[in-house]
Amino acid sequence: MVETTRLIYSNKELVVMMLKDQGIHEGNWVLAANLSFTAMNFGQLPDGSDASPAGVVAVTGVLIERVPEPLPFSVNAAEANPKKAVPKKTNPKK
Q: CA 84, CA 74: separation in Å to the nearest integer?
């Protein structure tokens, strides 16, 4: 059996997994990310003579956000993670 070393999920697949993980059954949801920005000087030469200002973006978190209306890239929680039907209790006949 081949060992899995890499898994790729689409944005919608991630949203569906997160909806199921959190037990969310209603609303339209989209994937979002928390980002952190910083600036630095970056160059290739060891003496730094070619250094230039550069920007760095770090992904510090992934989240889902509820949106008021369906969007082409949103996930409907009622379709992706429907509530399980609870069977009605019946009174046993005596």
A: 22
User: Does residue 88 fall inside a structural domain?
Assistant: no
Average pLDDT over residues 56-68: 97
**The model's pTM:** 0.75
* Total of domains in the chain: 1
Assess if residue 20 is contained within a domain. Answer: yes
Q: What tens digit of pLDDT does each residue of 4-47 get?
A: 899 999 999 999 999 999 999 999 999 999 999 999 999 999 99
User: What's the DSSP call for residue 91?
Assistant: P
Which residues, including other chains, have CB under 8 Å from residue 77's CB and lie 6 or more apart?
A: 19, 24, 25, 26, 27, 28, 29
Residue environment code for 53-71, b if the CB has 16+ CB neighbours within 10 A, otherwise e: eeeeeeeeeeebeeeeeee
